[in-house]
């Protein structure tokens, strides 16, 4: 899940890989279409169009990456990475249209010439091997830089290798059984492969546009790492969303319940930095500090009082004892109110006990349990 590359390095590596794929696909596509027309092979022409679509996708990937690499600004505080997703969706529509066209042509038009199976076998074998090598190269790069768009481009090279295998088999069967039009059958299969490829790209793009999260195994790895961070005793409501190759995290972490606000903030900030160092594709983490798992309170709300209510209740009691406080510290935990009162002056033990008794009596009629701690200077 992690990567040692910065965002700028990732983008540069993606662009270099895309340029290499584009050149290779341009050469293969031209060769397949020319030989397919010369050899009267609908399947090889369809395979060439399949490869041309990969070339087109490489171009879309290149320009989408350049546009998406612009830094965030005031109008787009999360950056421009969604451009990659939109490019994928547009390409998926084009794939579906071309795939349907290939299927229609293979089913409707009549065969008028015999297929030059020897040429088809030669070209399809070469392109099958080259596409498999390109797939492995692009897939390894996509895994390294965590680029969904490059991974999609790599998958097309594998599908091209598979479609070249179909063309190869159809040419072999045409040699063995010349009375059957296996070339047309292969063209139909390749057309459906292109349609399927468009559907898969569209599904992934739509899922990202509606804020789909990361995969469950990656989410579990992230949760385990958060729990290993210092000061974190629990995590809940861990949510993720993807934006092209970037991941955004919302996490509620649980700390010890009676630490200070500043220490809780320190723990959360350290966790955030640690997570972003470990997982390079995570570009932002929003951390909420909890003293407990309070998800059960989301719908019913808490019955505990606010600071203003507590102050209003204890002020007349303190005035009756002629006391003032320097600090009032409240802890809310497990639907119990913990009150720490630091007095400004020294009082005796007996007077302190009477003060605690008076405050306990005042809060006893409330619908929530209350615990008091009283601090004063030594008499």
In short:
With 379 residues, the chain is α/β, with parallel strands linked by helices. Helices cover 62% and strands 13% of the residues.
Q: What are the defining features of this structure?
A:
Alpha-lytic protease prodomain-like; alpha/beta; 3-stranded mixed β-sheet; 379 residues; 11 helices
Give an overview in words.
By secondary structure, the protein is of the alpha/beta class. It folds into three domains: about 5-210, Cation efflux protein transmembrane domain (Alpha-lytic protease prodomain-like, Up-down Bundle), CATH 1.20.1510; about 215-295, Cation efflux protein, cytoplasmic domain (Alpha-Beta Plaits, 2-Layer Sandwich), CATH 3.30.70.1350; about 305-375, Alpha-Beta Plaits. It contains eleven helices and six strands. The chain starts with 6 loop residues before the first helix and ends with a strand.
Shape descriptor reads rod-shaped
The figure for the number of domains is 3
Q: Would you report the number of β strands?
A: 6
CATH topology title of the largest domain: Alpha-lytic protease prodomain-like
Proportion of beta-strand residues: 5-15%
What is the CATH-assigned architecture of the largest domain?
Answer: Up-down Bundle
Helical percent range? Answer: 55-70%
Question: Which stretches are low in confidence, meaning pLDDT under 50 for 5 or more residues running?
Answer: none
Taking the alpha carbons of the first and last residues, their distance comes to 61 Å
How would you characterize the largest beta sheet?
3 strands, mixed
The chain-level structural class is alpha/beta
Order of helices and strands: HHHHHHHEEHEHHEEHE
What integer is the average pLDDT? 82
* Count of separate DSSP helical elements: 11
């Amino acid at each position: 899940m992690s990567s040692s590359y910065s965002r700028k390095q990732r983008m540069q590596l993606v662009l270099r890989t895309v340029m290499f794929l584009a050149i290779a696909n341009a050469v293969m596509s031209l060769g397949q279409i020319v030989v397919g027309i010369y050899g009267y092979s609908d399947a090889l022409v369809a395979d060439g169009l399949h490869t041309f679509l990969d070339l087109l996708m490489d171009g879309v990937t290149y320009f989408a990456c350049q546009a998406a690499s612009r830094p965030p600004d005031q109008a787009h505080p999360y950056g421009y990475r969604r451009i990659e997703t939109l490019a994928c969706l547009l390409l998926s529509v084009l794939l579906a249209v071309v795939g349907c066209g290939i299927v229609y042509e293979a089913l409707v038009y009549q065969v008028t010439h015999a297929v030059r199976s020897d040429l088809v076998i030669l070209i399809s074998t070469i392109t099958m091997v080259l596409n498999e090598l390109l797939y492995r190269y692009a897939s390894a790069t996509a895994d390294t830089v965590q680029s969904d768009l490059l991974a999609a481009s790599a998958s097309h090279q594998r599908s091209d290798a598979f479609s070249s295998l179909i063309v190869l088999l159809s040419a072999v069967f045409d040699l063995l059984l010349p009375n059957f039009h296996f070339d047309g059958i292969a063209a139909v299969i390749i057309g459906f492969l292109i349609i399927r490829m468009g559907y898969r790209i569209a599904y992934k793009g739509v899922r990202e546009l509606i804020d789909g999260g990361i995969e469950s195994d990656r989410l579990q790895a992230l949760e385990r790492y958060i729990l290993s961070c210092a000061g974190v005793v629990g995590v809940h409501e861990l949510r993720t969303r993807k934006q092209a190759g970037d991941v955004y995290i919302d996490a509620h972490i649980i700390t010890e319940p009676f630490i200070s606000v500043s220490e809780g903030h320190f723990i959360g900030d350290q966790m955030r930095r640690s997570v972003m160092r470990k997982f390079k594709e995570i570009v932002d983490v929003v951390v909420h500090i909890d003293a407990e798992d309070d998800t059960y309170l989301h719908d019913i709300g808490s019955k505990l009082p606010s600071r203003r209510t507590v102050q209003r209740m204890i002020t007349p009691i303190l005035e009756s004892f002629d006391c003032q406080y320097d600090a009032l510290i409240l802890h809310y935990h497990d639907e119990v109110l913990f009150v720490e009162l630091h007095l400004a002056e020294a009082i005796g033990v007996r007077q302190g006990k009477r003060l605690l008794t008076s405050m306990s009596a005042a809060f006893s009629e409330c619908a929530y349990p209350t615990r008091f701690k009283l601090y004063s200077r030594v008499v």
